[in-house]
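Sample intake sheet
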Amino acid sequence: MAMDWFVSLPEGHITSFTQLSQLFREQYLANRAPPPVSYDLFDVKQYQGETLKEYISRFGAHVVKVGTKEEPMIVYAFRKGVCPGPFCESIIRNRPKTFTEIRRHAVEHIASEGEGEQEEVAAVISRHLDAFAWTATDMPGINPDVLCHHLTMDTKVRPVRQRRRKFNEERCLVVKEETQKLLSAEHIREIQYPEWLANVVLVKKANEKWRMCIDFTDLNKA
């Protein structure tokens, strides 16, 4: 922008560096954005689809930028900017006196909304329990036309037979139990002399139980 301004000056208009400095300062002061004022907070509106958390964060950033300490005006500007709804009605009822109180009410409101959503999800699951498979035995013998896992590999890649991995007694029992579940549900079948051989891997879950996975490291290279 400075170069555009300089080029637009008439030829021979600048006769000294002092004159150039003065004109540049005048141009800069004329184009400089005015400093933010407290009333700019009334322009901070909650967008359609913007979450309460996002709006409070954005409004708070503007409060810091403006630098005002007038809590009544901050609270009033926030009430004017937030979208109508349960939270807006709650702050009208509770009449918070500071922006900090608004933040506290918002945290409580967001938490209560989350609990309500969890209850709704639990209710839907309870009404449709028969649509969910909780164990492998709940979905035995799936028709391959409905669901089939397929590994696309390069036929030119040499097959790899991983060396048998040894497990301690606890893990051996877990592997046997999980394998038997899959065999009973007809999800897997036993084959002899496979070209590819991949070991199982046991991963500890958050509930301290084991999850059995397959080591597809060599398959991924194919």
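Comment: Strands lie at 200-204, 210-214. The helical segments are 2-7, 17-31, 52-66, 71-81, 86-94, 99-127, 169-184, 217-221.
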